[in-house]
Specification:
Elements (H helix, E strand, L loop, with lengths): L2 H5 L3 H21 L1 H27 L4 H31 L2 H23 L3 H17 L1 H31 L1 H11 L5 H39 L5 H11 L5 H17 L3 H27 L7 H15 L1 H20 L4 H7 L3 H19 L1
Helix pairs in contact: 3-4, 3-7, 3-14, 4-7, 4-10, 5-11, 8-9, 9-10, 9-12, 9-14, 10-11, 11-12, 13-14, 14-15, 15-16
Length: 372
């Protein structure tokens, strides 16, 4: 059945076909998580590293295998430096664990008094509830430790395969390009080549913009916390910058972590309030100034689709899905905007109102001509 005959089918048949396809694709994506997740990450890394690999290959005159390996090693070194900076700060934070326990006990006593005064639940009943919850947690402690160790091993394997795939993507990039172009009909080869080039350009600019935004947010937060006398200002700035990669949800997580760490290391409650206010202000500036200028100019996706993408990505693949949701949606929008039969879907994903209105007007006029 060709596309023309499909458009003439009743609505409920087309709806059933679309829903069945979505369910099938969703099931396959969830089933193949262990394979697809590192593949997509490695694809993004290889797009980012492509100019570096081309520099070593064409300017330095190194073999493609050597240039690809050097590019991956440089990426690993950069990630290692960030992890080392965070790890050194976390090890210092562990020294404040006794102070955190004292602060926690004081807060629990204050909370118990507040509950007793407002809800008339005495401290004995509160202690009973706490002891019951503690016994349940201790009973499942072995399972928690086992799950944690399994998660750490899974993360390690995930990283190893991601960087291996990145190397192979860079090594066989011309072969992959020829395959993608040759799969489609001769009439569509120009369009396919244009989509691939546009995807590479947009994704590379998006990742670079995201890294710039992350560095600016981390630097501003670190300096602000340092001037306010917040302990571990550099660590909190790095956490905020890294978590800020995840739209909306990331800054909320960073705010909670920063407030808890500040609460553990400072006896003054006003500093916790200052941390919260500072991060809220930084988020507002980032969302309304940095994001549109640095990142928004590369990927035009509206906020509703962004939030839905992050939530659905977390439901399907967990934390990796949250990171991958925006690049995947950006790639889909590029494809939708350039394939005539899918341009309607590109409208709902976009955020450029004038451009989307022009596209919608064009599609409406085209549909009227088809009906006539």
């Amino acid at each position: 059945m060709d596309l023309k005959n499909f458009t003439n089918l009743p609505f409920y048949i087309k709806l059933a076909c679309v829903l069945f396809s979505l369910f099938a694709i969703g099931y396959l994506v969830i089933l193949a998580k262990e394979i697809l997740s590192p593949l997509i990450f490695s694809c993004l890394f290889s797009i980012l590293l492509l100019p570096v690999a081309q520099f070593f290959e064409f300017k330095v005159k190194l073999p493609r295998s050597a240039s690809s390996m050097i590019s991956v090693v440089l990426l690993l070194s950069a990630i290692g430096l960030v992890l080392y900076a965070i790890g050194s700060q976390v090890s210092n934070l562990a020294n404040d664990w006794p102070q955190f326990q004292v602060q926690l006990h004081k807060s629990i006593d204050t909370l118990q008094d507040w509950i007793n005064n407002n809800f008339h639940v005495n401290e004995h009943k509160q202690a009973t509830y706490v002891d019951n919850a503690k016994s349940k947690i201790m009973a499942s402690g072995t399972a928690v430790v086992g799950t944690t160790l399994l998660s750490l091993s899974s993360i390690l394997l995930f990283l190893v395969f991601t960087f291996i795939y990145t190397f192979f993507f860079l090594l066989y990039r011309k072969l992959i390009m020829k395959f993608l172009v040759s799969v489609f009909l001769e009439d569509n080869k120009t369009l396919v080549h244009d989509i691939i080039e546009q995807v590479q350009y947009i994704i590379r600019k998006y990742i670079i913009g995201l890294l710039i935004e992350m560095a600016i947010v981390a630097g501003v937060v670190s300096i602000a916390f340092f001037l306010m006398g917040i302990k571990y200002a550099f660590l909190l700035g790095l956490i905020t910058g890294l978590f800020n990669i995840i739209p909306y949800i990331g800054i909320l997580t960073a705010l909670i972590l920063s407030a808890v760490i500040t609460f553990a290391t400072a006896a003054v409650t006003s500093k916790v309030i200052l941390v919260i206010i500072t991060l809220v202000i930084v988020h507002l500036i980032d969302s309304n100034v940095l994001l549109p200028v640095i990142v928004g100019s590369k990927v035009r996706i509206n906020a509703l689709v962004t939030v839905l993408g992050v939530v659905i990505g977390e439901m399907i693949w967990g934390i990796p899905g949250m990171f991958l949701s925006i690049p995947v949606i950006a790639v889909l929008k590029i494809i939708f905007d350039r394939v005539e039969s899918l341009q309607s879907w590109g409208i709902i994903l976009g955020d450029e109102e004038k451009q989307q209105n022009k596209l919608a007007t064009k599609l409406i006029a085209r549909n009227k001509k088809v009906k006539i």
